[in-house]
Amino acid sequence: xxxxxxxxxxxxxxxxxxxxxxxxxxxxxxxxxxxxxxxxxxxxxxxxxxxxxxxxxxxxxxxxxxxxxxxxxxxxxxxxxxxxxxxxxxxxxxxxxxxxxxxxxxxxxxxxxxxxxxxxxxxxxxxxxxxxxxxxxxxxxxxxxxxxxxxxxxxxxxxxxxxxxxxxxxxxxxxxxxxxxxxxxxxxxxxxxxxxxxxxxxxxxx
Length: 206
Description:
Elements: H1 6-38, E1 72-78, E2 84-88, H2 94-100, E3 124-127, E4 146-147, H3 153-157, H4 164-177, H5 194-200, E5 204-205
């Protein structure tokens, strides 16, 4: 009389059960990795509506408290869908602030601002309507670029890495030597080297 190999059968069932459990674990890990990869890791702009909207005034916006401490803050008004104050990343350009504000309105003149230029912390951008002339103040043009030959100290001080001391040196150089012929002439100003000049090329004009 023969007997069935019960112990072997049990071991086989145990192996099958362990294999199925391992497959389930691996499937769970794969799902977790996929979900993590599909989760956004941040936004380029943060804005909350300000109280001015109810009064019919273009919304200045209030940056969220949890915005990146290294963010730059740019105020955009005029012909964009959502005017306001936005927190962006250093290195963002004009096109990024327009996108953050929801894009141009149908009345906007896209040629009124320079979409390619680098943004700087604390600046305000005005997007004009078609046919609208935005008054330039202190040497700052409608697209936000600073004219080295007409800018005052306050306008120059808004440029990255140009504080009050360098702004005064630029004005002194201009008074002594006449108008800047090109942006490269900034290298003749004491304290301005190649690295500072490279950061200013898209922000200034002559």
